[in-house]
Amino acid sequence: MSNRDEAQSLQLAFSLHRSGKFAEAAKLYRKIIKRNPRESNALHSLGIIEAADGNLGEAARLMARSLSVQTTNVQFMQNYATVLCQLGDFETAGGVCLKGLEIEGANAYLLYVAAGALLKQNRLQDSLSTFDRLLSREPNHVAAITERSSVLLALKQHDAALAGIDRALALDPQYAEAHLNRAVLYGQLKRHDEALASFDKALRLNPNLADAWLGLGNVLFELERFDDALVAYDRAQALRTNLDEAWLGRGNVFYELRRYSEASLAYDKALALRPGSAEGWVGRGNVARELKQYEAALACFDKALALDAGAAAAWLGRGNVFLELLRHEEALAAFDAALAAKAGSVEAWLGRGNALLRLKRFDEAFAAYDNDPGLAEAWVGLGNVFYELRRYREAVSAYDQAIALKPGLAEAWNGRANMLREFKQYDEALIAYDKTLSLRPGLTGAESARINVKNCVCNWAGWDADCARLISSVKSGSMNAGPFEFLAVPSTAQDQLDCAKSWIKVMYPPSRERLWQGERYVHDRIRIAYLSSDFREHPVAQLTAGLFEHHDKSRFEITAISWERSDNSELRKRLEACFERFIDVETHSDDEVARLIKSLEIDIVVDLTGLTKLSRTNIVARRPSPIQVNYLGYPGTMGAEYMDYIIADPTLIPPSHQDAYMEKIVRLPHSYMPHDDTCRRISDRSLARADFGLPASGFVFCCFNNSYKLNPRLFRSRMKLLKAVDRSVLWLSENNASAVKNLRAEATAAGVDPDRLVFAGRLPSAPDHMARHRLADLFLDTLPYNAHTTASDALWAGLPVLTQLGETFAGRVAAGLLTALDLPELIAETQEQFESIAIELATRPDALAAIKAKLAQNRLTRPLFNTELYTRHIESAYTTMYARHQSGLLPDHIDVPQ
């Protein structure tokens, strides 16, 4: 084809293009380019059509080819720079504009695009200078005045930005972009109502303004109007399909709504459009953290920081991950980095407070939480500090303040519920737990706490459904159940193992760097450290005091590690005298305590607290000692790989059950439970039934267990007994007024006179309490959670205990005690057998008398209450553990011989 024909074809293509026949023009441009690949006008014009069709990448490619031919065509440069900006390639766009300005220095359009590209690159001062250069030539350039205000907004020069917006609107009141900038400014200032009004004005003037819909979505998100925010983001996306910020906004909404799958998809869309979005990687990391995918979360935050080392949100995310992994020092460093990147970040101060709280650096935690008195989560943190310090009234006030600031904050309601439970205000606590779970159904431990307070007041409405739901959640690996509270739920030993393992995995995972590194200490005596919160007037201390005194100090060096303040009781003073070292670590962090144990070269750590309320399991999680033992305080497996042994007996954990325990089983030959045979005094006062509201005649069934160990199945069985035994009564502990009321109502519903329930209040004298057991005829044990110390007390006082053998540790304790007393006739295999034995003993005085006589003899002759013998047996267990370790053998099951 001749040059003339080619020129005519090009003119025809231009004509078609100008008349709006874009498809025909594009077809002709392509024919021309095929014949002449360097036809710059055809290349550039086809690029314009492709850009109009949304094919920005192809448009940019064609325009770049056109400029390679006409290297000084300023119009080409203008169009190419515009497309590059639409693609987000602001650096190349800026370079194109600067080249154009070298050719045509006064080109207002190039100055405008260059300034905008510099703004997008966050080169704010360069952008401002370029806008000023443009406005010095065209002072009334409305778009430039408006965009210049965007630079001032980015520089936080709000007054100057507002003055620029006002100037633009004075020149053109209908300029939608100026109203948009005013809306953005008000949004930055948290003047949300004014922001919404300005967005509305911008969108009425130009409904197709994608940035306005995006900004509106962001403000609605801050106002927690999440559904409206999603609508706004959808409108923005419909107008500009490649708007990554809209996908980012959607991800943020779904994240707040805990719709994590949708949030993840939205963040992925944003990152597909802009892989260099640090915000997108932060969002993706936050989702991974919520899903407990901690390594993936850290990888996302690292990508964000590689893109922007000063991304405060990424440092914050890393800190939160480390906090959940209990890597508190690393968490502190990350939160400090977040504060360096964004001074005054309330989220970083909050995280810092949470890390310091875990480290028990309470004064520093207070200071961190005090940084923003308007942040509800900080008040929750303060409440948690007060809780740790046992300043419960102040804790309640802090949680209430959090609720006042943010009524939908589940953690605040949960904290309040926990405090009400401490005050034994169980009915109010139940309301608070119900509120907690309505806001966040899966909040750690809240559901089992709710069941516990219901059990404390014997409010059994929906009990079967509650228990079934909790057991199902444990089987699914959720954190709805705290292990200690789960013991009173009718579950299996395997369920309890699953519950403990899930709890340990999240709350007390093994330390990444254990302190003990395999050393074998050489000492003249085996060094044992007993760890407990209960070296005070507490059942654990009452049971173990004699053991500590009887330890062979020539063979064992014993240390107490105590983290609960002294109650100044005689028992506390006695305990302090039992040990060669009695170390108070209440104010020390878990890591400090673990390092102390390591420095003392302790051979065997014995955790007397386990997973009970005041546990400090993170100490043993750091593996400060070569041998670690779960003993007495927590009746079940701790589910932790760092616990080597659990002290039990043949009844508690027979060989057929041992697979349901993480620890190796140490079976003492008689009972796992110690006894203080010299100091558990029984008053010699003459007590009468009338003194306690009991009938002078008639059979007295007794159960002094805590009310949370009762349940509707068990109580219906007890009512059957009262019906079967004329003039009998059931003597129960008076734990709280609500429980008394509810139990009386349950008795009435079962057709039993509620006056046949008699309630025993607390006595100030422990010996008198022991003595009053003798006013009863038969102690009826509970299931699935037996009487433990309570059963030992009853048997020591001479009161027979009737139990039913359960499946779990907590449900087999009383059977172990009775076996050690050679009283197997008081151990039932089924509820029917339990009821049959109870009725026989209540209606056959001779049978009951024979049992009481046998108990009176056996309590003094059988091994259960022989403290010295018990001490020799547990010392034998310690010696075997130690010998295995010194021989390089791994822990294994141990059966201590008689």
TrEMBL record:
One term of GO molecular function: protein O-acetylglucosaminyltransferase activity
Enzyme class: transferase
TPR repeats: 176-209, 210-243, 244-277, 278-311, 312-345, 376-409, 410-443
EC number, as in UniProt: 2.4.1.255
Protein keywords: Glycosyltransferase, Repeat, TPR repeat, Transferase
Keyword tRNA processing: no
O-GlcNAc transferase C-terminal domain residues: 522-675, 688-873
Any one Gene Ontology BP term: protein O-linked glycosylation
Pathway given in the UniProt record: Protein modification; protein glycosylation
Keyword Transport: no
Family, similarity comment: Belongs to the glycosyltransferase 41 family. O-GlcNAc transferase subfamily.
Entry-linked PANTHER family: UDP-N-ACETYLGLUCOSAMINE--PEPTIDE N-ACETYLGLUCOSAMINYLTRANSFERASE 110 KDA SUBUNIT
Protein name, UniProt field: protein O-GlcNAc transferase
